[in-house]
Amino acid sequence: MRIVADIGQCEGLGMCEAMAPDIFEVGPEGHVVIHDASPDESRRQDLQAAVDACPVLALTMQD
Amino acid sequence: MTTDLRRLVVVGASLAGLRAVEAARRAGFTGSITLIGAERSAPYDRPPLSKALLRADAPASVSPFHTEEHLRTELGVDLRCGAPATGLDIDHRRVLVGADRVDYDGLIIATGAAANAWPLGAGVPGVHPLRTAVDALAIRAALDAGKRVAVIGAGFIGSEVASAARARDLPVTVIEAAPQPLTRSVGPSVADVLTGLHRSAGVDLRVGTQVTEVHQNASGVTGLTLGDGNYLPAELVVLGIGARPATGWLRDSGLALHRDGGVLVDATLATRAPGVYAAGDVAHAPLSVFDDEVVRLEHWTSAAEQGAAAARHLLDPDTARPLQTVPYFWSDWHGHRLQFVGVPTADEARVIRPEPEQFLALYRRGDRVVGAFTVNGQREIMRYRRHIVGHAPFEDALAEAGAHDRAAV
């Protein structure tokens, strides 16, 4: 499981950080910084919530 | 999934409606899904209509989330766009679309909201609400033509249109009946900063006044007379005066409606009618995180969350749990990002940082923090959300604000 952010699309709205703050953070440039791009399978639900909550559809999950 | 439900009908080809469809398929639902929408197009994203779409350097077009082909073949949707639902029979589990009847086992109402009417300017060319792609493209064309702009209402929509006009160096006047912009969304004590953002960007902001007359010639609107007697020339008038739930079709259904026409649901989004849920701008739902305060939210994040949850709960009611919604909105004004998380209905809104370009206010209800409002606070806003959702003491949020200030030095 891998999480990919489209930085060109990201507007730093922070919903991913709200859903999984240990994995996502809005960084100094105002875009998402991913702390762990291949998290454990047990985090799937949190990651799906983050992907679904992104208002600019900048996140995708790949198996 | 434990269901004998075979026919799912979603009324409203909106974000909430689309998320309901996607969540149903993701949950393994293999029955039929009918998606009924009033507009001609497949579901599309609305926040860009008052933001990116109005920029001179952005394409003047609106793309749907998914093509109709994708909706039909990949998601197995019977898509019926361009014909609004006209009635609901909860006893026979049937949606009426003009002369057509669509039977359901489960129904999700996601018809959203429609722009409030403005009788003074009804039918006058050049006077536009901003709710749909058609509205937005007409406003974009008028901005491209360099028209003088007047905006009625200094809420989100009005303020974003004013920002778009100023970014093109067009003169713009915003007319607001209240003493400050956005009072209902952020509370009166912090709205001063918003007045400052508009005025320093060159917006002619007229507060505490209303339009009394609309002037027009053969080609459309030419200007407005205000309550104070002043005359404003304008060839484009944009209405940002709020929206009301699009529930005319439910009037005779027997479904319990709020006095504003919205659909009353419980914390799992269920109505009292069997097999009927509501999601998005149309729904009045209790907020579990905020003492079950019942609110109707017009926010992207709640529409997305509620649409998906309504479908999951409808298909598997035994696992339905109250949503843990924390309201969140953002808006872009003159290059500044405004963000609000939580609720503004508080005992106190304390301004922590008054500087307009790095503003921070925290909202206290009793001894807990219930809201945070920032300007250009992208890096800190979600930290306050964690305190809010965790019912944390107000002091914890204050400490977070202090910690953030030290980190920024």
Automatic annotation (TrEMBL), chain A:
<protein>
    <recommendedName>
        <fullName>Ferredoxin</fullName>
    </recommendedName>
</protein>
<keyword id="KW-0249">Electron transport</keyword>
<dbReference type="Pfam" id="PF13370">
    <property type="entry name" value="Fer4_13"/>
</dbReference>
<keyword id="KW-0411">Iron-sulfur</keyword>
<keyword id="KW-0003">3Fe-4S</keyword>
<dbReference type="GO" id="GO:0051538">
    <property type="term" value="F:3 iron, 4 sulfur cluster binding"/>
</dbReference>
<dbReference type="GO" id="GO:0046872">
    <property type="term" value="F:metal ion binding"/>
</dbReference>
<keyword id="KW-0408">Iron</keyword>
<keyword id="KW-0813">Transport</keyword>
<dbReference type="InterPro" id="IPR051269">
    <property type="entry name" value="Fe-S_cluster_ET"/>
</dbReference>
<keyword id="KW-0479">Metal-binding</keyword>
From TrEMBL, chain B:
<dbReference type="InterPro" id="IPR016156">
    <property type="entry name" value="FAD/NAD-linked_Rdtase_dimer_sf"/>
</dbReference>
<keyword id="KW-0274">FAD</keyword>
<keyword id="KW-0560">Oxidoreductase</keyword>
<keyword id="KW-0285">Flavoprotein</keyword>
<protein>
    <submittedName>
        <fullName>Pyridine nucleotide-disulfide oxidoreductase</fullName>
    </submittedName>
</protein>
<dbReference type="InterPro" id="IPR028202">
    <property type="entry name" value="Reductase_C"/>
</dbReference>
<dbReference type="GO" id="GO:0005737">
    <property type="term" value="C:cytoplasm"/>
</dbReference>
<dbReference type="Pfam" id="PF07992">
    <property type="entry name" value="Pyr_redox_2"/>
</dbReference>
<dbReference type="GO" id="GO:0016651">
    <property type="term" value="F:oxidoreductase activity, acting on NAD(P)H"/>
</dbReference>
<dbReference type="InterPro" id="IPR036188">
    <property type="entry name" value="FAD/NAD-bd_sf"/>
</dbReference>
<dbReference type="InterPro" id="IPR050446">
    <property type="entry name" value="FAD-oxidoreductase/Apoptosis"/>
</dbReference>
<feature type="domain" description="Reductase C-terminal">
    <location>
        <begin position="328"/>
        <end position="397"/>
    </location>
</feature>
<dbReference type="InterPro" id="IPR023753">
    <property type="entry name" value="FAD/NAD-binding_dom"/>
</dbReference>
<dbReference type="Pfam" id="PF14759">
    <property type="entry name" value="Reductase_C"/>
</dbReference>
<feature type="domain" description="FAD/NAD(P)-binding">
    <location>
        <begin position="7"/>
        <end position="307"/>
    </location>
</feature>
